[in-house]
Every structure is written in C-alpha cells, then in structure tokens.
C-alpha cells in the first residue's frame, strides 16, 4: 500500500520531474462519500463494487488538510532525509512533528517538494481506502493543470481549489 502523499504523477522521467497529467483521474472524498474525479467532468459517486476496479487509482487528498512546501536539502542530509525532514521543517509547522506525516520527492538539485499532514488524517485515509488499496496519495491541487505565469481555479459548490505553481496549491 502506498503511503506517500506525492507519488505516481511526480516520478522523475529522464531526470526531470513530471507534472500532473493533462487529463487526470483520481478518487477523492467529498465528506464521507467517495467519488471519481476526472478533469472536465462532474464527479461521479463510487460504490463498493466500482471501487474494486479502481484500487490502483490515486486518491486525491484534501488540499486543506495537506501542506505543500519546497525545502532545500543539503547533500549530506539526503541519506537520512526520512528521519531528518521533520526536524528540518520543525520551525515551519505549528503541531509537534511527532504528530505529523511527512512525504517528499526531489524536484531539482537540492530542492525537494514536501507534503505534511497529520498522522491522524493519513491513518484515516489509509483506513477508509482499505488494506487492498494500491494507489498513491496526491495533493488534490496538483491534479489541476498549470503553466508558468498562470494559476488554475476550480470553483466547486462550497469551496475553491487553486493551483498556483508547479508544486503549490490550496483550497
């Protein structure tokens, strides 16, 4: 089971990080309900039977529950980054680092994109998707299209999802 918050769409190809696909599909929760989210289409509710065929699809985690940040990591810190990242970011987060889940991916040289959420939220998503979930977790704003010098805004019924940069967005 995948437990990283940034995967699948940002794996390096030929040494260059990939942006989100042009026409992404992902599962996401709207309240307690699971839905299939596809670019340019209205979300479709997903029931238990349909979910069985979607176990490898990414889960878009709520942008208002996950913080994205770019972090410079020295070469000597990279070997132990999984252990040191919480302490590198400690001054940038309010909650105790012991209560947070950290995920990261290299994006350029010493620059890493990090995703931070509470361990409680991460555990709840893993539990709700079930032990046989094979997909990755991705910040929902990274599913929106983006080009340099532009932002992308998705207006929904009760909130707005915004992608502001290659690795940044919010709700």
Model description:
- Residues 6-20 have low confidence and may be disordered.
- The chain has helices at residues 48-51, 75-78, 81-88, 119-129; strands spanning 25-30, 33-38, 44-45, 59-61, 67-72, 100-108, 111-118, 137-139, 152-155, 160-165, 168-170.
- 16% of the residues lie in helices and 33% in strands.
- It contains four helices and eleven strands.
- A hairpin with a 5-residue loop joins strand 2 and strand 3.
- Give the structural class: alpha+beta
* N-to-C SSE string, H for helix and E for strand: EEEHEEHHEEHEEEE
Assembly type = single chain
Net shape: globular
Write the layout of secondary structure elements.
Layout: E1 25-30, E2 33-38, E3 44-45, H1 48-51, E4 59-61, E5 67-72, H2 75-78, H3 81-88, E6 100-108, E7 111-118, H4 119-129, E8 137-139, E9 152-155, E10 160-165, E11 168-170
Parallel strand pairs: 1-4, 4-8
Antiparallel strand pairs: 1-2, 2-3, 5-7, 6-7, 9-10, 10-11
